[in-house]
Amino acid sequence: MQQQTDQALITAVLEGNSSAYAELVNRHKRFVFTMAMKFAKNREDAEEIAQDCFVKAYRSLATFKNTSKFSTWLYTITYTTAMSFLRKKRIATYSIDDEENHLQLENSISSYQANDVEKKSKYVYLNLAISQLLPDDAAIITLFYQSEQSLDEIGQVLNMESNTVKVKLHRARLRLKEKLEYLLKDEVKELL
Amino acid sequence: MKSIEEQIWEYIDGELSGKEREAVAKKIADDNAYATVYVEMLELHKLMAAVELDEPSMSFTRNIMDQVNLEMAPMALKTKVDKRIIYSLTAIFLAAIVGVSWFTIAYTHFPALPLPSLSLPSLSLPSFDYNINIEEFVSPLTLQIFFFIDILLALLYLDRLYRSKKA
C-alpha cells in the first residue's frame, strides 16, 4: 500500500478524520522524542515534552501553511517547547570544566562501565558525549545528523541564519570531539 | 582563514565548490596533518550519522490521541460566509452609488456648457428641518458616558490582546 504524504494526512485531519493524526505521530515520534531527550535528560520529562509538542501541533494544524516541510514546522514547535521546559525547570547547564560536572561525568561513566556489553559500544559513548553537550549544541547535531534537515531548515527550526547554523554546527562537533576524547582518553584513538 | 577542521568538515559535508573541493582533496592526499584530521572527522561523521533515534514508550501515541480527542478538532481556515450574502451587499452598494451619482448629475447645473437640455423626471425631495439644537443632546453628562464607554472598550480590547499574546 502506498504511504500517504504528510500533507495528505494533515488534510484528512482538517477534514475531521482525527485518527489520521495517529499516523503523523507514529511517523515523527522517534525524532521528536530524541530531540526532547537532548533537553530533558530523562525519559519521563522527554515524553512529557514530546507529547506536549504533538498536542500543540494538533491545535495549530490549521495554521500550517505548507510553505515548509511538516517535519521542519514540527521540530520548530519541539525546539521552542523544549526550551520553555528548560526555562521552567531551570535545569542548570555546566561546562566540562565545572567541578560538579566532573562528578556527574564520572558517575555516568561508572554506571556505563557496569555494563560490559555497553562498555564496548561506540554509540553508548557517543550518546553520552552528546548528552554532555549544551542543549543547543546537542539539538544542532541531532537535527543535522538524524532529521534529514538542510542547514536552511535547521535555521528555520532554531530561528537562525543558515550561516550561523553552519558555524554553530562546526563548534558543536569540535566540542563533541573534545568530550569524546575526555570520556575515552586513550580509547578515543581507537574509536575515531 | 579557515582552520584545517573547518575545511575538512566542509569537505565532508559536501559544501565546497569544485575548485575548493579539489584543493582540499589535494591537501588531504599530500599533507599528513590534513590526512590525520580527515580520518578522525570522517569516522566521527559516520558514527554520528549511524546513531539511532530514541524510542518513546509503547503508550506514547495512545496517550497523545487520548489528549487530542479531548481537544476541539482543527479546521481549515476557510471563509464560511455564504457568497449570496456578499453578492447582495455588493448589489445594494452599487445601486446606492449609481443612485447617488445619478441624483448628483441630475441636480447639478452646468450653465457654461451648451449642452442639449435633458428632460429629467422632476423629483421633489422631502423637506427636513435642519435647525437641530445639538446642545439639547450633547450635555456634559452624555459626553462623560460616551468617554467612559470608550475607555471601557479600549481596556477590554487591550486585555484581550494581552491574553492572546500570553497564550
Task: Write a brief structural summary.
The complex is a heterodimer of chains A (192) and B (167). Chain A has helices spanning 6-14, 20-40, 43-59, 70-89, 99-113, 116-119, 122-131, 135-146, 151-158, 162-184, 187-191. Chain A has 192 residues and is mainly α.
List keywords for this structure.
heterodimer; A: 192 residues; mainly alpha; Rna Polymerase Sigma Factor, Chain: A; Arc Repressor Mutant, subunit A; 11 helices; 0% strand; globular; B: 167 residues; 7 helices
What does the model show?
- The complex is a heterodimer of chains A (about 190) and B (about 170).
- Chain A folds into two domains: about 1-90, RNA polymerase sigma factor, region 2, helix turn helix motif (Rna Polymerase Sigma Factor, Chain: A); about 90-190, Orthogonal Bundle (Arc Repressor Mutant, subunit A).
- Chain A has about 190 residues and is mainly α.
- Chain A has helices spanning about 5-15, 20-40, 45-60, 70-90, 100-115, 115-120, 120-130, 135-145, 150-160, 160-185, 185-190.
- Chain A contains eleven helices and no strands.
- Chain A starts with 5 loop residues before the first helix and ends with a helix.
- Chain B has helices at about 5-15, 20-30, 30-50, 60-70, 85-105, 135, 140-165.
- In chain B, helix 2 (about 20-30) packs across helix 3.
- Chain B is mainly α.
- The mean pLDDT of chain B is about 80.
- The two termini of chain B are about 45 Å apart.
- Chains A and B meet through helix 2, helix 3, helix 7, helix 8 and helix 10 of A and helix 1, helix 3 and helix 4 of B.
Largest sheet of chain A: none
The overall average pLDDT of chain A, rounded, is 79
Instruction: Indicate the low-confidence ranges of chain A by residue numbers.
Output: 94-116
Order of helices and strands of chain B: HHHHHHH
Report the portion of residues of chain A in β strands: under 5%
Structural class of chain A: mainly alpha
Biggest interface and its residues per chain? A-B, 46 and 34 residues
Which percent range fits the helix content of chain B? 55-70%
Beginning-to-end CA distance, first to last residue of chain B = 46 Å
SSE sequence of chain A, one letter per element? HHHHHHHHHHH
Number of separate strands of chain B: 0
Largest sheet of chain B: none
Tally of alpha and pi helices of chain A: 11
